[in-house]
Amino acid sequence: MTQAGFCRNHPNAPAIAICKSCATPLCGMCSRFGDDGVRCERCAASHETAQLVRARSEQLRKPVAPATQIVAVTNEPTAARAGTTVITWIKWVCGVLLLASIGVPLYFYSNPVIEVA
Hints:
By secondary structure, this protein is mostly helical. The chain has two domains: 17-61, no CATH class; 77-117. Helix content is 45%, strand content 9%. It is built from two helices and four strands, in the order ββββαα. The strands form two sheets. It has a two-stranded antiparallel sheet. Strands 3-4 form a two-stranded antiparallel sheet. The longest helix has 32 residues, at 79-110.
């Protein structure tokens, strides 16, 4: 246990850590453990925001690489595309057969033929 005493947010809970940024005593529920130390909730949120802004700024500073290769786009079906088309047709046919095997008996069950003598 640290020499911090009790948590700032929970006065009955003993402090297990001190916030790296604001030196607030924290219990286990209030501690936010990170790679670079323990922070309180408020300091952890501002630290995370600063990290995201820093990462995005670095990303925006990187130059955009010019296109090095031009790929021709054609409408000819490829082998993979033809395979998906076949699978799609098989699924469609199976769906129609399933619908027919369930739907037709249900129709005749709900609409019985009544013979009048």
